[in-house]
Amino acid sequence: MTKDILFNFTDVQLAQYLEKMGQPKFRAKQVSEWLKRGAPNFQVMKNLPESLRKQLDETATTLPCEIVQKLESSDGQTTKFLLKLNDNEVIETVLMRTTYGNSVCVSSQAGCAMGCKFCASTLLGLKRNLTANEMFAQVLTAQWALRGGSDMKPNGDFNNNDVSHIVVMGTGEPLQNTENLKGFLERANHDLNISWRRITVSTCGIIPGIIELTEWGRPINLAISLHAALDPMRSDLMPINNRYKINEVLDAAFAFSNKTGRQLMIEYILLGGINDSIKCAEDLSALLCGKNCMVNLIPWNAVAERNLIAPSGNAIHRFQDILIKNGIHVRIRRERGADIGSACGQLRIKNSA
Questions:
Q1: pLDDT by residue for the chain (353 residues), tens digit each?
Q2: β-bridge partners, 299
Q3: 0.85 exceeded by the pTM?
Q4: Is the dihedral of CA 179, 180, 182, 183 positive or negative?
Q5: Which residues contact 181 (CB under 8 A, 6 or more apart)?
Q6: Active-site residue flag, 134
Q7: Does 289 participate in catalysis according to the annotation?
Q8: Active-site pick, 92, 134, 173, 267
């Protein structure tokens, strides 16, 4: 039997649902408060009668996702969740504890259709878009973990253990799911008080989606997955480049940056022997010179199904030095959660085997 997902109900629908169970009106408010905090089941709702908790458990679930697997990195800074959706599709969410706050990496699709040659997310293809509620529930799942799980009490003060940043860089291409993405981000900003400036959306360069975000006008951070400075190499690595060329993508992205006043982020995964050469660094410098952007250099996180190698330490720092010499703002992204397969799609692939 398919259970009702109470998280998807409006306040009126939730009140009607509980009224049919013979419950007083104030029960709907109690249940709603728990749902807004990300309660994973009804048993944690200790201010409800046990009989009601059991009754709800028979007919409904709380969130539109449930934890299938939870992995903790050895340094305690990264938690990876494998989540099952109501239709049994699985997605991944990553919680990263940093010096500047708690960041959640959110998936926007179950699978991915982009076909990038270095990525695990696309290996099983695209299954479907996620709803705004399914994206929002990922953040609440992470926040529940931060707040101590079942020890959490309603109406407590959890300011020091809240999610402070959202990055939509998980499985899927968010700008193939733009309407649900915007709905999710509006809710995260309104309900969780997460500043627009602490939200980042990463895209491989879907120009109509970038234009739509520009018209939407929220001052989020936009990240472009570039990974090559010349069209032939990028087309080989990322088939989407056959449709949207580098200069066209960057024109749209910098138009977004100019309107919102936010610095554009350029993501560049370094692949050993492919795009980590001196020439590649000089080509990237020429492409971005004088632009309001920052380059994130990302050493490739090995995927067993891909016949690629990580760059050497010398190649990484040589690439960085060339960009700095040419006046490009650059940083090397710190590797997080490598021991738990934190790269997009890795845990999902293992679960499907």
A1: 789 999 999 999 999 999 999 999 999 999 999 999 999 999 999 999 999 999 999 999 999 999 999 999 998 899 999 999 999 999 999 999 998 899 999 999 999 999 999 998 888 899 999 999 999 999 999 999 998 764 444 444 445 579 999 999 999 999 999 999 999 999 999 999 999 999 999 999 999 999 999 999 999 999 999 999 999 999 999 999 999 999 999 999 999 999 999 999 999 999 999 999 999 999 999 999 999 999 999 999 877 777 899 999 999 999 999 999 999 999 998 776 566 555 555 565 555 55
A2: 270
A3: yes
A4: positive
A5: 108, 132, 135, 168, 174, 175, 201
A6: no
A7: no
A8: 92
